[in-house]
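One such given next:
>
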Amino acid sequence: MEILAFGVQSDEKPLIEKAFAGQHDVRCLDVFLTEDTAPIAAGYEVISTSVNADLGGSVLQTLAAGGTQMIAQRSTGFNNIDLDVAERLALQVARVSYYSPHSVAEFAWTLAMAVNRRIVRAVSRTRDFDFRLDGLLGRDMHGRTAGVVGTGKIGEAFARIAHGFGMNLLGWDIAENPACTALGMTYVEKERLFTEADLISLHVPLLPATHHIIGEDALSAMKDDAILVNSSRGGLVDSTALVAALRAGRFTGVGLDVYEAEAGLFYVDKSMEGIDDDTLARLVTFPNVIVTSHQAYYTRDAVGQIIDATVRNVADYLAGRRSENVLVPAPVAAP
């Protein structure tokens, strides 16, 4: 069988081909799955998609009409998939429920320290042989308070690093993680966390309850010199409200690896044409903001685990097995 994989980065292609070698052929495309590209999947029983794929109702209908029966998404998040429509169309959908949490946690800390110590500005200066220190004053993390919003595997990994820095830990989640409390984390209401934390890092999934969890009220509650990092999902942050806060001179720094309107922008070269997203264009102009293109997961370790899980998901589908990765199971044949 030949599998069609959408949104494959150049670094991923040899890893995907090697993982499927001897089992299935795989056709890797660098284009993302959208309404325009969905017809390419005609005749492919199994396709694989990336986190920025459009798997809304109309795309799913096109896939089903073309003969697709199984979608293997190469990510943990699935807020881009209309699961109800997939079930109605008898499309099996699977994701990757777990990969290295250290990849995202370490990158979140990379963003935090980069904005704290003004790394981007410093590198830009030294490339012009400007070795002044003016405007590069950072601060110690030791002894300050880290607020971890979402204390699952990634949040726990982030908290462990914060503990290594000697920080006080505040956490918010629907359930406490014993590993985090063992580190000395105090669970509090999110409003208290926003008020007291010097560094706030987001590690919750994007759900209706968490959409714009960082909105005008939360931003207003934060310290003027706080650091905010989002390496989870763009929709957690109200970008318009964030721009307003930054324009008011708030925050030591903001690190964003995700953006709520990133579909169609991230993973694409727009350098020769620019963008028409005024909010994102404004965000990247602030000297205390770093925006990266949803790359926190992008380590050889994590990508390898994602691909291995995708291979298993396809094998489970063909064997009629169901794992914890299945979001929409294959329909049960009538007796």
